[in-house]
Specification:
The chain is of the alpha+beta class and about 140 residues long. The chain has helices at about 5-30, 80-85, and strands at about 40-55, 60-65, 70-80, 95-105, 105-115, 120-125.
């Protein structure tokens, strides 16, 4: 490859990496700038629990929640944080989720701020959407 080709390749690589960082930052900004007035509350039954790898290899918990108003994909948070709070989820659990709704394709999604199960409250994010686990060392 000649010098111009190497320079062009390097420029494209740098732009791709910086775009990836800016998207991550944008996602974090969206998660932290929720208006408490936009919160919704959904009560229903946990139909499924899935785990997916997130940033830093942490396993994130996602719940499929069936309610009277539809089926929602609930973004909970890192399984390590949920466990440290003494919380677990199982199919058939009746829960109440307070959070922010987002539509992605045909699925309703909720970014959970707080989940109540059997009278016990799991708080995941502050009223503006900032993740509480990010404030604890070792869980970032």
């Amino acid at each position: 490859m000649n010098r111009i080709g190497c320079a062009a390749f390097l420029l494209v690589a740098v732009l791709a990496v910086s775009n990836g960082f800016s998207q991550t930052g944008a996602q974090q900004t969206r998660a932290r700038n929720h208006d408490p007035a936009d919160e919704i509350t959904v009560k229903g039954t946990v139909e499924d629990i899935t785990y997916s790898a997130g940033r830093g290899g942490r396993m994130g918990i996602h719940l499929t929640l069936k309610s009277g108003s539809g089926v929602f994909q609930v973004h909970v948070g890192p399984s390590s944080y949920v466990s440290l709070q003494g919380f677990t989820f199982a199919k058939g659990d009746m829960i109440e989720v307070i959070g922010w709704e987002a539509k992605t394709g045909n699925e309703n999604e909720i970014l959970a701020r707080q989940i109540t199960k059997d009278g016990k409250v799991l708080t995941l994010r502050d009223p503006q959407g900032s993740a509480l686990w990010a404030q604890q060392s070792g869980l970032r």
